[in-house]
Design goal:
Distance between the termini: 37 Å
CATH topology of the largest domain: Helix Hairpins
Strand content: 5-15%
Strand order of the largest sheet: 2-3-4-5
Largest sheet: 4 strands, antiparallel
Number of helices: 9
Structural class: alpha+beta
Radius of gyration: 32 Å
Shape: elongated
Length: 373
């Protein structure tokens, strides 16, 4: 296809709406704008009617894809929580093992001191201690209340008790973390299975809508007229192609260049390259290639990471490479894209679609962007 979105009026309108006015409530793709002139040609009317059908199909694909996006990001969030819980368990287990080793060493030192005292002062130890403290540990326990303990022995015994208490405390924490990690892993597995099913179902519907859309454009033979009437709907055959990749060594330029090089690769749930991506997988990998960590494979986590680091800026200050977020409310992000400049963004949209450049959608758009690096 050779269709293009007109570069002038549309981009200026999108920039004005998105980067100056903030985030108005345009829900999905803009509707085509039919000409009102009474001299409109039959060809133009046909193109406008066809464009209306194509935009309707695009809306169906976008709406279905949005459901899959939300499911995928819930699964990504659950996996992030599971990974966090697993890391916390590993840390707690390591601390418990180290504390247990310390407690054993402390007990050994204290027992050795008690045994030494028993050997050297056996004649002065109480009879009940001699009869009942047959082991080093037993002697240690008996000596804890004996006046025969030296000051150093008292300290060794007190340290052994404290170290054992700390080991017991940390073992309890490790046990709790183990339970939490198990629950988190189970939830992640459940959410992943649900997301895979929703992605597969969505892909069938999206494929059907986009196949019909492509067929209409192919059969019509007047792509330029049709594409000129679809407004800002992200119809693949009508999107800008062959754009010039930004130059420079800055993080933003590197991120945009990488994302542009991935255009055409399929959306796959939980994928982060090199052959397929989901939305947060594309952003994660693009920034990793630029040497910048932006959090985990989760749109919500990437937003929260930027927030915690003070990297959120007003959308009016967006620069190429910044991340744009979409939310249904409640603080969770269901989609993330890369701002490419000139009112365009780069994204891995939803199952059935491929990585693409598209006009910035303003429906559900968060009023702040992440400016990492």
């Amino acid at each position: 296809m050779t269709g293009r979105i007109p570069a002038g009026g549309l981009i200026a309108a999108v920039l004005t709406a998105v980067l100056v006015a903030g985030a108005p409530g345009i829900a999905q793709a803009d509707s085509p704008q039919p000409a009102t002139s009474p001299t409109t040609s039959t060809t133009d009317k046909t193109a406008q009617q066809l464009a209306a059908r194509i935009v309707a199909l695009q809306r169906d694909a976008e709406a279905t894809g949005k459901v899959a996006q939300k499911a995928a990001e819930r699964a990504n969030d659950a996996q992030t929580a599971a990974d966090t819980a697993a890391n916390q368990l590993a840390d707690a287990s390591a601390a418990a093992v180290a504390a247990t080793d310390t407690a054993l060493q402390s007990r050994a030192r204290a027992s050795a001191a008690a045994a030494q005292l028993a050997r050297t002062d056996i004649g002065t130890l109480p009879l009940d201690l001699m009869l009942n403290g047959r082991t080093a540990q037993g002697v240690l326990g008996g000596l804890s209340t004996s006046s025969q303990l030296t000051a150093q022995s008292h300290l060794l015994f007190a340290q052994a008790e404290a170290d054992q208490a700390e080991a017991t405390r940390l073992e309890g924490i490790a046990s709790d973390r183990s339970d939490a990690a198990t629950i988190a892993a189970q939830k992640a597995a459940t959410e992943s299975a649900k997301a895979k099913n929703e992605a597969a179902s969505a892909k069938k519907e999206v494929d059907a809508a986009l196949d019909e859309q492509r067929a209409l454009l192919t059969q019509n033979g007047s792509d330029a007229a049709v594409c000129g009437s679809v407004g800002s709907a992200p119809v693949s055959e009508c999107l800008p192609t062959g754009g010039t990749a930004p130059t420079g060594t800055g993080v933003g330029a590197q991120v945009v260049r990488f994302a542009m090089s991935q255009i055409g690769k399929p959306y796959v749930f939980a994928a982060a390259g090199p052959d397929s991506y989901d939305c947060s997988g594309l952003t994660l990998t693009a920034y990793a290639k630029a040497g910048v960590s932006i959090g985990t494979h989760s749109a919500t986590n990437q937003y929260e990471t930027a927030k915690a680091q003070g990297d959120l800026v007003p959308i009016a200050d967006a620069k190429p490479g910044d991340l744009l977020f979409y939310t249904g409310g409640g603080g969770d992000m269901y989609h993330v894209t890369i701002y490419a400049g000139n009112g365009l963004m780069l994204e891995a949209p939803y199952p059935g679609a491929t990585v693409r450049g598209a006009p910035v959608r303003t429906g559900d758009l968060v009023a702040q962007v992440a400016h990492f690096g």
